[in-house]
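Example 3.2
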Amino acid sequence: KYLDGMMACVSKIDEKSDFYKREAPGVFEKFIAREKSLKRKKPVLSRLFQIYISSNLLKAEKVLMTFNKAYKNDKKTIEAMLARVLDHPEVKSNERKFLSYVKRINQGEFKVSRKVANKIKLNALSVQFKDVEKNNTKGSQLKALRGYYQIFNDKISSRDAKKNAAYNMAVLYQKIGYADKFYYWANVALNL
């Protein structure tokens, strides 16, 4: 009962105030831990995520995971939370972390619409290939080949990324006159 009263009090406080940002997470976490009704927990998890995404990425990710397990079929909310996490500066600046989320989405850990999944895949491809493409256009073909090879062998790389890397290696090998390696990588790209 006392938690219901605390929740009522917290709901009356301005969400932008420092007091709310400092005190509400504790109240919300206690409520979530004790409340048995998934229906009553859902909006509280969303509000807790909103607080943490701007102050504590790790805690926001934990809330996302909790929400994802409990409300697997609520694609819209999961997509919105994922978008906020993927847009977070800590994730954007950490290629490995960003690509690990992409891999988890590709493996079905998070249910998202095809449209969103495709956008995220395209984003991942551009993240992976950004530096390598710079080397390729600058004429540093050896560095570009190394980069494409790393992308191809990376466990996090999607099938599309591997195919794109293999194709680009074939093109580069053809440019520098290695017909055997051109043929090999062209076949790899075609067979992925």
